[in-house]
């Protein structure tokens, strides 16, 4: 089975090809260009280097968020178009479980974090059970200080990872001998991890969708939506 994975939920854009449990190829670009500029050239390059075509793909895997609202939409629109043209199933993988797969089989509790603005992060807690990361505390938006206090009360080894470390490293340092920060190379969102998680989900018949019913995971409203609603309320109050 050939899996094509896409992740544009964070600053990094990533695409990967996965074949029967093996990574065929992956491209990750972590710069300031928009994902709309990066994604299609990356896909074209990946297929060329792997000597493959879109017609060879059997399953699509996409990171559905949470993360960048615009970024999520770009990857979602791309897999929906591919799924529609080729009538392919699509597996949805959230950005936090994808990060946890960066440390697949690590014998520690994993706490991925992504910046959610206003001193808050998107987070969840995973443990490696039965050969892979399994969710043990639900995905939510939480104040970084509250999350730190929560994790400090847990027993055993814990690792923070994800793009949120770039912003909150100072708050996460020196929390005790059992709490550590992942290395920079495992903090970047990777399409290879999206593929690995998607393969497990497809085998377990979980989160499998079509181009018509797959939905993004935003967790909360975008800042633009919040500002629009505030403006609408202000206009009604002025009437």
UniProtKB/TrEMBL annotation:
NCBIfam families: T6A_YeaZ
Official protein name in the record: Universal bacterial protein YeaZ
Source organism superkingdom: Bacteria
CDD domains for this protein: ASKHA_NBD_TsaB (cd24032)
Gene that encodes the chain: yeaZ
GO process annotations (BP): tRNA threonylcarbamoyladenosine modification
Pfam families cross-referenced by the UniProt entry: TsaD (PF00814)
Assigned GO CC terms: cytosol
Organism of this sequence: Peptostreptococcus stomatis DSM 17678
Gcp-like domain location: 26-192
